[in-house]
Design a protein that fits this description.
It is a single chain. This protein is α/β, with parallel strands linked by helices. It folds into two domains: 101 residues, 3-Layer(aba) Sandwich (Rossmann fold); 107 residues, Rossmann fold, CATH 3.40.50. It contains nine helices and eight strands. It has a four-stranded parallel beta sheet with strand order 2-1-3-4, sandwiched between helices. Helix 4 links the parallel strand 3 and strand 4. Helix 5 crosses helix 6. The longest helix is centred in the middle third of the chain and has 17 residues. This is Hydantoin racemase. InterPro entries: Asp/Glu/hydantoin_racemase, Iso_Racemase_Enz_sf. GO terms for molecular function: amino-acid racemase activity. It comes from Anaerotruncus colihominis.
Length: 218
């Protein structure tokens, strides 16, 4: 049986990711690697991806290779730049869950709103979006990264997912008139999209597209 490894930093997203993966690849084994200590460590380092953190991210890719996986997928946007740095040390494709979404967003208009819920994700997500736009030959697009204040705390400190999703929806509706496409950058934001179908502006999420990219490696 073919295998894929997901590398996560938040335990709460794993059940939903397992379900989404099973819908697309029911005959492929999914292995989840969780490091829920890496985000606190990045926070302690002022948001910086230190050499030790980059090495840890690389080690997870190497572990996936040892499992016999066809590919590994990083589910965390905060450590996405570390995946790019780690790829040369990993003998299988080491992908990012938001990669296909960001590339598609770059082709859908000149003004992109990149919504995030965590301040720590702000810089890495902006970097990833800009890199994706340049890859698509769209380096001139406007990318505005917008923090949905209170959403991260609602989900991770208060356990209130409904409030988390509501805050995302409210922010998306607030800014939609100024942009050609709204990007819900983090995998944890995916459920909010269902309340934005009438927005009149395309709303992109990462999970389905990010998993679908695995087809070329399986």
């Amino acid at each position: 049986m073919k295998k894929v490894v997901f590398v996560s930093t938040v335990a709460g997203i794993i059940p939903g990711m397992k379900e989404a993966f099973a819908r697309q690849f029911p005959d492929v084994q999914l292995i989840n690697l969780l490091d829920d200590g890496i985000i606190p460590e990045i926070t302690e380092n002022g948001g910086k991806l230190t050499p030790d953190i980059i090495k840890r991210v690389a080690d997870y890719g190497v572990t996936a290779e040892r499992y016999g996986a066809s590919a590994a997928v990083c589910m965390c946007t905060t450590i996405a730049p570390a995946v790019d740095a780690a790829q040369p040390a990993v003998g299988i494709p080491y992908l990012k869950i938001d990669g296909p979404m960001l590339e598609r967003a770059a082709t859908m208009g000149d003004r992109i709103a990149l919504l995030v819920t965590a301040e720590l994700t702000f810089g890495p997500s902006t970097q990833s979006a800009r890199k994706a736009a340049e890859k698509m030959g769209r380096g001139q697009v406007q990318i505005d990264t917008i923090l949905v204040e209170g959403a991260w705390a609602a989900l991770n400190l208060e356990g209130d997912k409904a409030a988390h999703d509501r805050l995302i929806v409210e922010k998306a509706r607030e800014v939609a008139g100024s942009y050609d496409v709204i990007v819900l950058e983090q995998a944890s934001m995916v459920d909010a999209a269902s309340a934005l179908e009438d927005l009149g502006v395309p709303v992109l999420t990462s999970v389905e597209m990010g998993i679908a990219q695995l087809a070329q490696y399986l």
